[in-house]
Design goal:
Elements: H1 4-8, H2 14-22, E1 25-28, H3 34-51, E2 65-68, H4 76-81, H5 85-95, E3 99-109, E4 134-140, E5 151-153, E6 174-176, E7 183-187, E8 192-194, E9 203-212, H6 221-224, H7 227-232, H8 235-241, H9 246-254
This protein binds 2-oxoglutaric acid.
2-oxoglutaric acid binds near residues 117, 151, 192, 205 and 260.
């Protein structure tokens, strides 16, 4: 019998399935209402203020961007967002029935940050004999425009079986623009990265990142999420955080979180 996560893949529409398999990404325009975007941004700005120089310290830092990490621990709206049915259905298309949350982070490209992120694959991972192991969702919390550091993707590159060379820029690269509230689900073996922010405003995004069950989480959720938050999670939330999964405990004991390019 399929479990709660496993069942989700069957609910993806044909369009979602085809775009993920063919191009490697699918866009859900205006998925969040403006009030929901505002609620995420209010909490995120509060956290940047509270955490100051330590912001993002549970993971890694990135020149040219503000980051926050371990977000499941930092507000009920984040506990909910990892359980979004449409996104889980799309993730199931990429990863199959056995997957879990890898990490939930915020990335805000700084005004006039002077450079783009390198093209990369998440966690530096390539598909293996079992198939895909990484799938990310990028939630736009500001409009993504041609000038403010929108996401770029290289459609189809999840099938190339290699990572981009430094500075490599395929002609097929596309910019993914959209209104705040839009969500992009992508096979994270597809080459992608943030672009340069030429404007005077922050460009905020939430990265809800999933991985296959036999891989370590980027942030070991059982370690980072406080016991009182763990205790109030739904069965699906517990399952997605892999809180009762001995295999995940072993995997995460062996390896520290890998980024596609950050130190
Ligand atoms: O925030 C974005 O536009 C994408 C960032 C990204 O790919 C990453 O941080 O790994």
């Amino acid at each position: 019998m399929l479990d709660m996560v496993g069942e989700s893949e069957g609910r993806a529409t044909t369009k979602v399935r085809e775009e993920l398999l063919d191009r490697g990404f699918v866009v859900f325009p205006n998925f969040l209402a403006p009030e929901q975007v505002a609620a995420f941004n209010a909490r995120i700005e509060e956290l940047f203020e509270l955490e100051g120089d330590n912001a993002g310290g549970e993971f890694k830092s990135e020149p040219g961007a503000r980051r926050l990490a371990n977000m499941v621990d930092k507000g009920e709206l984040f506990e909910q967002v990892i359980q979004t049915p449409e996104v889980l259905a799309a993730v199931g298309v990429v990863l199959g029935p056995d997957f879990k949350l890898s990490s939930l982070n915020i990335r805000s490209a700084n005004p006039h940050n002077g450079s783009a992120q390198p093209l990369h694959v998440d966690s530096g991972a390539l598909p293996d004999e079992l198939g895909n192991s990484v799938c990310n969702s990028v939630w736009m919390l500001d409009d993504f425009t041609e000038h403010n550091g929108a996401l770029r993707v290289v459609p189809g590159s999840h099938r190339w079986g290699r990572k981009p060379e430094p500075g490599e820029k395929p002609q097929s690269e596309l910019l993914v623009t959209g209104k705040a509230g839009t969500v992009v689900v992508m096979n994270a073996h597809m080459w992608h990265g943030g672009t340069e922010n030429f404007t005077g405003h922050q460009r905020r995004a939430m990265h809800v990142y999933y991985t296959r069950g036999d891989k370590p989480q980027q942030q070991y959720q059982k370690k980072w999420v406080r016991p009182e938050v763990q205790a109030r999670l739904s069965p699906l939330g517990r399952r997605l955080l892999a809180l009762d999964d001995a295999r995940n405990d072993e995997l995460c004991a062996l390896e520290t979180g890998m980024s596609g390019f950050m130190k």
